[in-house]
């Protein structure tokens, strides 16, 4: 196996164009598992660790642009305050060692429905920036992930960054696992409030072939919440939101849990997450 080590993004893209079968490696926390279990044996690996453009983050037009190679640890520390939902999700990923190496770019590259970085990206309408020697494309995250461990990347493309709006309201991420840490989600849920748009965005993880936006639950909550008076959320509205989240899921039975359990759990997560975010919003200065 040949290890290619580009120093710039241009070099990395040339290498990917010349070797379309090459597998990029960022933190390696997914790819090394695949290699160790002999699930993949690429002829070339492109090590992206030294490509500075992938390690940067900044702002453009009020949006955060985060390089694909920024680790979870850096993301939590350096942009966590602006992106609380993604930061909460990032804190649940693996262990400190995994968070030091692992990246949201790698989570996008794997495109697992259980990837914890994905529901917050969906609930923020994030955009994935990909590039090749032919040019670059910006793909809404909901179109980027096309199926379980499938995405819209062409063979000669790399993920360069993702663009995400800083939070304008409270955000939550809840995850159920078979233990407290180092666990793949049985199911998860991101709920983000966007008060300026009077919008609630909710995305389910690990309960369908891709992360799933619970659009009926979103529309119900946006109409049910009293945005101006900030009135308390009634129990029946919270339960109805939970029921609509539950109805949006498309889980299967697998080693981590049954479909029936996932449906039930998502109803509970939905109810709680809406209450938590709304109560936080009510407590903020108008
Ligand atoms: C012990 C352990 C615990 C874990 N716990 C969790 C968890 O709690 N939650 C969770 O979501 N995940 C978890 N994971 C999985 C993994 O850590 C995450 O998916 C992580 O985000 C992968 O990032 P990475 O940088 O290590 O990716 P890598 O392994 O380097 O790459 C992952 C995939 O993306 C591709 N890729 C990487 N960068 C690019 C790029 N720039 N352009 C195109 N393709 C690219 C690679 O070719 C590969 O297919 C865990 C893994 C381990 C080993």
Largest sheet: 5 strands, antiparallel
Radius of gyration: 19 Å
Structural class: alpha+beta
Helix content range:
25-40%
Q: Proportion of β residues?
A: 15-25%
Choose one word for the global shape: globular
Kindly report the average pLDDT value.
97
Oligomer kind: single chain
**Topology order in helix (H) and strand (E) letters:** EHEHEEEHHHHHEEHEEEEEEEHHH
End-to-end CA span: 59 Å
Strand order across the largest sheet? 4-5-10-6-7
Low-confidence stretches: none
Number of beta-strand segments: 14
Number of helices: 11
Notes on the structure:
By secondary structure, the protein is α+β, with helices and mostly antiparallel strands. The protein is 36% helix and 23% strand. The strands form four sheets. Strands 4-5-10-6-7 form a five-stranded antiparallel β-sheet. Helix 9 runs antiparallel to helix 10. The protein is globular and about 60 Å long. The N and C termini lie far apart (59 Å). The structure holds flavin-adenine dinucleotide. Flavin-adenine dinucleotide binds next to strand 2, helix 2, helix 5, helix 6 and strand 10.
Question: How is this fold's topology laid out?
Answer:
Elements: E1 2-4, H1 9-18, E2 23-25, H2 31-36, E3 44-47, E4 57-60, E5 63-67, H3 72-79, H4 84-91, H5 96-101, H6 104-110, H7 118-122, E6 127-132, E7 135-140, H8 141-144, E8 145-147, E9 150-151, E10 158-164, E11 171-176, E12 187-194, E13 199-205, E14 212-213, H9 215-224, H10 235-248, H11 259-283
Parallel strand pairs: 1-3, 2-3
Antiparallel strand pairs: 4-5, 5-10, 6-7, 6-10, 8-9, 11-12, 12-13, 13-14
This protein binds flavin-adenine dinucleotide (FAD).
């Amino acid at each position: 196996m040949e290890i290619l080590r580009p120093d710039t993004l241009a070099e990395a893209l040339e290498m990917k164009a010349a070797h379309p079968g090459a597998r990029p490696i960022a933190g390696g926390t997914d790819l090394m598992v695949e290699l160790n279990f002999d699930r993949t044996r690429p002829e070339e690996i492109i090590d992206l660790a030294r490509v500075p453009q992938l390690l940067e983050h900044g702002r453009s037009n009020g949006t955060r642009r985060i390089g694909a190679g920024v680790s979870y640890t850096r993301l939590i520390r350096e942009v966590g305050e602006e992106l609380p939902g993604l930061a909460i999700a990032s804190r649940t990923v693996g262990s400190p060692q995994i968070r030091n190496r692992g990246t949201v770019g790698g989570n996008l590259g794997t495109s697992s429905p259980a990837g914890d970085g994905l529901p917050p990206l969906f609930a923020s309408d994030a955009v994935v920036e990909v590039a090749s020697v032919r040019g670059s494309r910006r793909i809404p995250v909901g179109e980027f992930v096309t199926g379980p461990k499938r995405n819209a990347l062409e063979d000669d493309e790399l993920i360069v960054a993702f663009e995400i709006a800083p939070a304008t309201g409270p955000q939550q991420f809840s995850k159920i696992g078979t233990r407290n840490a180092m666990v793949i989600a049985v199911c998860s849920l991101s709920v983000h409030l966007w008060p300026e748009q009077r919008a609630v965005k909710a995305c389910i993880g690990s309960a369908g072939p891709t992360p799933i936006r619970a659009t009926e639950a979103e529309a119900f909550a946006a109409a049910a919440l009293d945005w101006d008076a900030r009135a308390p959320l009634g129990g029946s509205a919270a339960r109805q939101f939970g029921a609509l989240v539950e109805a949006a899921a498309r889980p299967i039975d697998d080693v981590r849990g049954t479909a029936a359990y996932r449906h039930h759990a998502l109803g509970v997560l939905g109810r709680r997450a809406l209450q938590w975010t709304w109560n936080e919003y009510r407590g903020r200065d108008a």
